[in-house]
Write a structure and sequence with these properties.
CATH architecture: 3-Layer(aba) Sandwich
Number of domains: 1
Shape: globular
CATH topology: Glutaconate Coenzyme A-transferase
Order of helices and strands: HEHEHEHEHEHEEEEEEHEE
Number of helices: 7
Distance between the termini: 55 Å
Structural class: alpha/beta
Largest sheet: 8 strands, mixed
Length: 253
Amino acid sequence: MNKVVQSARAALEGKLSDNATVLAGGFGLCGIPEHCIEAIRDLGVKGLTFVSNNCGVDDFGLGILLRNRQIVKMISSYVGENKEFERQYLSGELEVELCPQGTLAERLRAGGAGIPAFYTPTGVGTIVSEGGMPLRYAADGTVAKASEKKEVREFEGRPYVLERAITGDVAIVKAWKGDRFGNLVYRHTAMNFNPMAATAAKFTVAEVEELVEPGQLDPDHIHTPGVYVHAVVVGTNFQKRIERRTTRPANAT
């Protein structure tokens, strides 16, 4: 029952291989499993498909794996502040499946709940449902691969598009507190995609800021039960960066 592992690398070694699908919690740079990301870089695994809201920035978060050419496909909601993400996508080096943010969260939740697909009104009548969204470009700028048309059905007079669930080989998540059994508590906006990602993979690694003993977490306040978590890593020196800092004018009211 003691799931604590000495390091993120030790937790992932032997569990993550080339061409795997990895679910990563976090929103931009908020609540990201930064130690696990660094461990994946150091392990050198290649051909990875990452499912995450976006890909961090050029020099931090998932951006370091992108720059290291370890990621071949991203399933995300947006490009964010990552110029390398944009460059690789437009040059045909990276396949990108853009997905509405709420739909992405629900696809992960459905994967963890064992629901293979669901209908949603989001994206009906757009390129999301009609197909033709560029997934991968050729070197000359033409579309080498495009999304397919999705099934649309009507319920009570309203059209809905069928979206498939997402599951992964490995999930990496970041929590505020965790115990040795793998029970996790997230803090504020770090909730984002972490709870959904934690449930939808075959093997889940959670890095936590604080490790507590079993029984110290209020059962009513646990966000991810330990049954979904296979390894717990205690992180230190979290950077907790933001994507963009803006300066408010001195005369602003």
